[in-house]
Amino acid sequence: MKTVIRLAATAITAFSFHAVSAAGPLKVYILAGQSNMQGSAHQHTFSALRDDPATAGLLDVVLNREGDPVVCEDAWITYRTGGRDGETVRQGKVAIGYGFDDQRIGPEYGFGIFIDHAIDEPVLIIKTAWGGKSLAVDFRPPGAGTYQPSANEIERGNVPEVESVGHYYREMIRFVQSTLRDTEGLKKLVPTYDASQGYELAGFVWFQGWNDMCNRHHIDQYTDNMIHFIRDVRQQFDTPTLPFIVGILGVYGTDPDSRKFDKGLPVSEFRKAQFAAVQQYDQYVAARFRGNVIAVDSGPFYDLQLSDIYWKRRLTGNWKQRVKQGQMTPETFQKECDRYGFGDGELTAQEQSIWDRCASNAEYHYLGSGKTFIRFGKALAEAMLQLEKQ
After folding, report:
1. Range of the domain at 52
2. What pLDDT is recorded for position 389?
3. For residues 166 and 139, is the Cβ–Cβ distance under 8 A?
4. Could you give the number of structural domains in the chain?
5. Distance of CA 173 to the CA centre of its chain
6. Which of 193, 257, 333, 370 has the greatest count of CB atoms below 10 A from its CB?
7. CA distances from 29 to 125, 221, 230 (A)
8. Each residue's pLDDT tens digit, 256-291
């Protein structure tokens, strides 16, 4: 069975809280992808949840009585990532700090909180995410075969090195396997882990896409690559029906073509390629690998009001610089502001307040919005729990 899920952005499901328990095997969830799986949302943006009556209740879930971000009672995480400082592994209870830095979150925070609330077994999230990576090259699964460069890559001498193709797929698999094979390490990380009960590989969440979306050659092969990826992961871990979620790129919302900005990016076309992988998956894999694959759209959780402010800041800032350098006249500046509805080009006091409280990064990182990442993480948890019931 395959399903496309577009969970309502404002829906808040009641989860039952449970006492810490070691009942049953350790439930292991793998989260993987690129920078938006890493996560850019700074904790200071959480308060934006209170601005909307439909989401205000979530603030009571993610903040404790003292007003600090909660730390999960029975959900842990081990997180491998990389950046300018090289490869790092962070681990502990699910909390703030498993995003870009120790003040930020990705989807794992909302996912971990709501999975922890919903089940009695101890939970371990194994997260691997590296920024700026493609499925076509960096995470290329074995089943997709040898990477065939485009004519443009050949002409420019920009063909990926053979050893780089699939490198992060292999690193992801290696990190998951080494974590699960290390019984003593699991006991140290998860104090309630009972080796006699063992663990259950309970689900996989994939959230990635920006780098493939920016490359026409990669878009053309994304559907096939994603189908191979899902099947190869299941085969690698010998779990043919492992519940699998494809997080759909949702920058600019569910209808990117209706936006006034960044019209040159083929976001809608790329989203179709992602959805197609889920819709077509069962047609191209052996019977034992079929089913339990769904798509969860991040588009409903993208903050379009915040995006408008982002683009007003970005465009008017660029135009002001051009005026200062004599490359644009003040009259043309105002004409451009009128064209986009930017008034005199200055942020209003209300816009500045919204930006300061709600944003902490750029549009391709979902504006670093805690409101977005928490709700999307919750949606992923709801979808995973739905899959597990099937």
Report:
1. 2-303+369-389
2. 85
3. yes
4. 1
5. 18
6. 370
7. 5, 27, 15
8. 999 888 778 999 999 999 999 999 999 999 999 999
